[in-house]
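Inputs:
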Amino acid sequence: GQSLEQPSEVTAVEGAIVQINCTYQTSGFYGLSWYQQHDGGAPTFLSYNALDGLEETGRFSSFLSRSDSYGYLLLQELQMKDSASYFCAVRESKNGGSQGNLIFGKGTKLSVKP
Amino acid sequence: GAVVSQHPSWVICKSGTSVKIECRSLDFQATTMFWYRQFPKQSLMLMATSNEGSKATYEQGVEKDKFLINHASLTLSTLTVTSAHPEDSSFYICSAFTGQLNNSPLHFGNGTRLTVT
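Outputs:
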């Protein structure tokens, strides 16, 4: 089976930097994704890492270390609108192949304070 | 713009009735769509994988006779919650990959909030 662990809640102030960690256990690995979900809304794709290293997209960056089965999402210059839940996810692997669907972590609720 | 359209966005129904939720892929063909369910303050849980032209694959613990999935075309999958009960009240979200590569993102519909009274 596959499982992902991430903190349940994080609180930070506007303008700060916050890092949301994710550790995973998978039978096969096809990359680590991050999704953002605002209350009452659907998840939206933020980033994807297949190889080790840092991927930067504006204020958001995502890092992956495959040897450590670990990744993180880094949010810089936090804004109030960044208050949301953030999920890490991996593709399910069956019989050595990727079956397509994503397995999600339990999510980290980020609260940005003024 | 949205690549996956889901309808309705919310529905309230009485216990024992059935509700149909539609999920359409816009501007691309989706041979596979995924139906997730999310209870308040919880993560997304995969219910089933909808395959165009064939039977859906259900996750363990999901009743296939209760949650009927039909994927009649490359752009439409439907989920019907039959004989709904209050415990079926949840946020149902469909999704699809727009590409075949492992790094293609999963796009979600806007979700359907079902309340069974």
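Remarks. Chain A touches chain B at residues 30-31, 33, 35, 40-45, 48, 50, 87, 89, 91, 98-107 (CB under 8 Å). The two ends of chain A are 41 Å apart (CA to CA).
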